[in-house]
Amino acid sequence: MGYSIFDDTMVDMTWPKIEAAAEKGAIVLLPTGIIEEHGPHMGLAVDTYAAYIISVKAKHLLESRGIDTLIAPPQYWGVSAGTSVFPGTFSVRPETMQAVIYDILASLKSWSFNRVFIINWHADIEHCRAILAALQDARRETNVDAVCLVSEFDIRRLRLTGEEDYILKYPQPPMMGISDKYVDIHAGSMETAVMMKYFPKHVKAAMARKLPPTRVTLEDLRILGKNEEATRKLIPDGYFGNPAGYDTAAAEKMVTDDANAVADYIEAYLKLK
Length: 273
Fold this sequence. Notes:
It contains nine helices and five strands, in the order αβαβαβαβαβαααα. With 273 residues, it is an alpha/beta fold.
């Protein structure tokens, strides 16, 4: 990819070009993630990189369909109760994150961007709720048409109906590790593979190949963040999954399928407006 998560985003544009894009009715994608520990074999920004790469791919797909699209600077201050006991996890208060998301949306609206789509890659439930709360406030108080893309799985997990006007329900492609008895979703095969495919310099591949798989169940995840001793006992190396089982071809397909679904559902949403 490019030089950083700012490549191909609004950050490298001049203000007149941003103003012109708003006047043309461009939409904005807002990637959200967190700076959080991801095991001994990867850096802290995995979630941010993942949200970014999906946003970039979705942007190019949308533009190929004649939809002017910008990417806002990735928002990487998030909430993580589960891994906050590890150094490197910057976990902000939910109300702080909610305020930041609100202010980003308000800024975009003040520049005449009327449609914003949040692409989130971080599953902490309070993190997700902060995004949704910010959307509701911003929609009500600034009249921005901002929504978060939410998978059918997360709609159930967040106890939503799927009909909320601040979400865009879409069928996220199956993610590696979700259906196994032991979960593989944090710095395991899936995230290690995504990083190896798109940002390999941020992965210690030789170390990843030597890391043993964990045996953490969905039920076990309730322990995360309860206290430092319990969390470190459950995931002593800061990951749960099988880093050694990473498959870059599978990761490429997953990311490509996800970006296609994002683009398809955004396009369909815009046609209804």
